Amino acid sequence: MNDNTEILLKDEERQPCEVWTRVMGYFRPMSEYNYGKKSEFAERRYFKQDLAMEKICSCHQAAE
User: In order along the chain (64 residues), what is the average pLDDT of each group of 10 residues?
Assistant: First the structure.
């Protein structure tokens, strides 16, 4: 099998993907979350550290 081989699966051959995330200092599968935690997870925002550092540095430079 080479790297260009595409594997096609029918829906009945697929398996559900279990998503784990860190909550309160340890990892748990999202399937065990209650409604409130699932809602909180959906509202999370993600950021890229490099972009955040650029904004912080540009704010400090502007203040000088």
Answer: 79 89 81 88 83 76 59
17 secondary structure, DSSP code: P
Residues 6 or more apart whose CB falls under 8 angstroms from that of 33 comprise: 23, 41
Q: Structure pTM?
A: 0.43
Q: Which amino acid is at 46?
A: Y
Look at residue 34 and give its three-state secondary structure.
coil
Nearest-angstrom CA–CA distance, 47 and 51? 8
* 39/23 Cα distance (integer angstroms): 13
Distance, in Å, from the CA atom of 11 to the CA atom of 9, rounded to the nearest integer, reads 6
Report CA-CA distances (Å) from 57 to 46, 51, 52: 20, 10, 9
